[in-house]
Every structure is written in structure tokens, then in C-alpha cells.
Amino acid sequence: MTKTFKDGFLWGGAVAAHQLEGAYQEGGKGLSIADMMTLGSRDQARELTDEIVPGTYYPNHVGNDFYHHYKEDVKLMAEMGFKAFRTSIAWSRIFPNGDETAPNEAGLAFYDDLFDELLKYGIQPVITLSHFEMPLNLVKKYGGWANRDLITIFARFAHVCFERYHDKVKYWMTFNEINNQTNYESDISVYENSGIKFKAGDDKQKLMYQAAHYELVASAQAVQIAHAIDPSLQVGCMLAFCPIYPASSKPEDILFAQRAMDSRLYFGDVHVNGTYPNWLQAYFTEKGYDLDITDRDLEILKKGTVDYVAFSYYMSFTAKYSGHWDYREYSDLVANPYIKSNDWGWAIDPVGLRYALNWMTTRWHKPLFIVENGLGAYDKLTADKQVHDDYRIDYLRDHLVQMEKAVADDGVDLLGYLPWGCIDLVSASTGEMKKRYGFIYVDEDDYGRGSFKRYPKDSFYWYKKVIASNGANL
Ligand code: BG6
């Protein structure tokens, strides 16, 4: 076996609290924004309701009931040989309203128990502080991340988590896919990232940049808090990396694709370099955006740069210049004739993963961590309780081949590989259960009906061999 990956390479899987825990009112948990999102589909956006509407189904209230099944689920992950398991801490379990001064002990105890269970099997918890959820009260009372007060409120949450768990958790991330809101015309993306619901007449792009700024400052502050509590903690950012290819070799398309990449990934520049890139400062001036960015903020950004860059990789985009230079994700993307898509229209592009790993290494010179990758697909549980998901194995194998080339041939410094939804859970974009990613099947339908029994899929046994061979046996 050739030794591609370094010792301690973190093979495992990833999930997020609101997509699988369920138990949305247990252990003193408060309502979160994820609790207000209805069931949607590929063609119908999830509704973001202000109150819980009687008679409406909210998939995140149930998740896959991990809250009550986690011991059995962790055991299955241990059986696959996981070295690491990424989840998030539901902010509303720790601070039910977000702005309390003291945390909820029952919420803290739940994560203590979960982390202990993982560590019992030698599985490292890898933790995101804010993965598409915040206490609902922070939206109602403060307007979400449109409000500067959230920086202090988040710092309190981060402090409590680092203080409580620093002996159990080494790898942390601040905001999941902070750059999704680049697509500010997508209500769900802005709501999940920033808890903002636009009103008629809002300058959506300006509001997005302002909220993102507060998040970037909060993230930098969290990095400093973590290091002050325990210098061995590793705190990363988390980006959704979708390479954006030019639609043709026309110079305008090339330049436009470059600008589109800069727009989606400036978040990483700020996280890593601690400064805003020149082009964006010029853009703010050109747009007349007089954002609330103080000298103190800029100091915090400088002092709170991340230790590593974590990212999700699912798909690539292709952009075409059409007469304007500011990238609009909702209208500037075109189909790529060389690439197929999954049933939800997500482009399947394994080579793009090697591109991603090289692009980030060259730009940021930081260790990288793949904390999401995977295929959302319809699975069928056979009468004898099997799932033959060869399509998922093919997808993952093709991506792992590219990942290995990036590490072995291109010298990328990679910490680990944590594919998404290692156990079936609620889809973030659609709220469906039937958009499945897992190695473990959960018997539950889109409306939370089913036995909730867990069954290993064929990919479970395949991934177990991959891990046991440190990636040699694909
Ligand atoms: C990422 C998110 O966007 O992709 C996850 O970090 C999400 O929360 C995953 O679940 C897959 O997306 P979806 O919409 O298929 O669940």
C-alpha cells in the first residue's frame, strides 16, 4: 500500500445538529430558525414561517431522532472505523433564547455525553459552532446577523463551548458555509447563514455584506477566545467550495469566472488573511456601500485568522459573461456540457475536487479539511433490509481518486475526509428525508413516518474497507 495520507488522517463523516437530532423541545432547547422551515422539494422552496403553523410538517423537529439514537449510531460509525465525526452544537440547546447570560446545563450535558460516547471508540468530535441555525429569538428581537449585538452574543456562546469541551474537541469551525449567502436572492441561503428575512425595498446585497462582516468579526473573535482558553485548539472557517469555470475561452468569460470566484470566496480571504481584498473595498466604494466596519473590527480580523480551511465540495459551477461584471449567482450560471447532474440538478464533477484542493492551497497556504462531500440520491430498502447503493460508491470513489492525486501528486496538506450525511438525515435545502447521503439507512419518510431503524447500506461496507486501508482499497 502506498502511503498517501499522513498518520492520523481523519476519515469519518459529517452531520449537523438541526438535520438529525430532532427532540426540538427536549432538554430545555429553545426554538431555532431551523424549526421554522417547512418541507419543500427540488421544485418547491421550503417556507420560512414566523410561527409554528398548526397542521404543517417541520422536518427538523424530528430529524432522524439522533437525540435518542446516538449511542447506537455512534456504534455503527465505530464499526466503519471512523476516526472523526463532524456535527454541530445546536446553539438553542445551550442558549435557548440566545441572549441569556447563563447557559442551559441540560443542553451542555447532552453534548458531553455525545462526545464521551465518540471518544470511547477513539472517534474525535469535529465541531461547528453555527451550522444553519440560531435561536429564533435572535431573529425576532435583533434581526439576526443584521445586528452588531450578535457579535457579543455569539462570543458568549463560543466561550462557553470552548471552555466546556476543550479537553474533548480539538477541531472547531465557526460558521458553516458562510459564503452561501453570496446568492443573496436565495431567501433560504440568507436565512440559514444570517437569520435575515428581507423586506420589500431592502438592498439585499448590501445587507448580506453587512451581516457577513459581523459574522467574520465574530468568527475572528472566536478564534482568539479559543486560543486564549487552550492554545492547542484548531479553529477553522468553513466554505462551500464550488469551482466556477468560464463558459468558454473568451477572455471576458475567463475574467468573469475569476471575479465570480473572488465574490464567492472573499470570505476565505478575510478568514485567512485577516483583511478585505482590494477589489472588494473598491467594489463597496463603487456601490456606495457605507458599511459599519470599524477600526476595531479590522484589528479583530487581523488577530483572529484561522488555523485551517474546512470546506464542502459537491459540485462545480460554470459562469458566462453577459455584459456586467458583478457576479449574480441567480442569473449568471450556465450548464456545463461535460458534466452530468444528480436527481436534484447538482453537477457531479470529481475533477473539480482536485481543482478545489489546489486552488485553496495556492491561495491560502493552510491545511485543508474536506468536511462535506457526497451524493444525495433516492435509495431503496429491499425486502431483506439492504440498500444497494453502488451509485453512491461510484460517486465517492471517483472523488477519492481525485483527492488522492491532490495529496500524493500535488502535495496538498489535507487533514481528513468527512463525507456528508454519513447517516441519512433531513436535507438542508429541501427538508426531504428521501434525498439521502448516508452509509446508514434510516427507515423514515419525508413526513417523519417509519420505524426509525438503522440499516447499513452497501456503501457502509465499502467505506469500512477504504478506511481500514487508509484509502488504498477503493
Ligand atoms: C451543505 C450543508 O450545503 O450541503 C449541509 O452544509 C447540507 O447542511 C448539505 O445538508 C447537502 O445539502 P442538501 O440540501 O442536499 O441537504
From TrEMBL:
Active-site residues, Swiss-Prot/TrEMBL: E372 (nucleophile)
PROSITE patterns per the UniProt record, alphabetical: GLYCOSYL_HYDROL_F1_1, GLYCOSYL_HYDROL_F1_2
InterPro entries on file: GH, GH_1_N_CS, Glyco_hydro_1, Glyco_hydro_1_AS
Source domain of life: Bacteria
Alphabetical keyword list: Glycosidase, Hydrolase
UniProt cross-references to Pfam families, sorted A to Z: Glyco_hydro_1
Alphabetical list of SUPFAM superfamilies matching this protein: (Trans)glycosidases (SSF51445)
NCBIfam families found in the cross-reference section: PRK09589.1 (NF007154)
PANTHER family per the UniProt record, alphabetical: ARYL-PHOSPHO-BETA-D-GLUCOSIDASE BGLA (PTHR10353:SF85), GLYCOSYL HYDROLASE (PTHR10353)
Protein family according to the UniProt entry: Belongs to the glycosyl hydrolase 1 family.
Name by which UniProt lists this protein: 6-phospho-beta-glucosidase
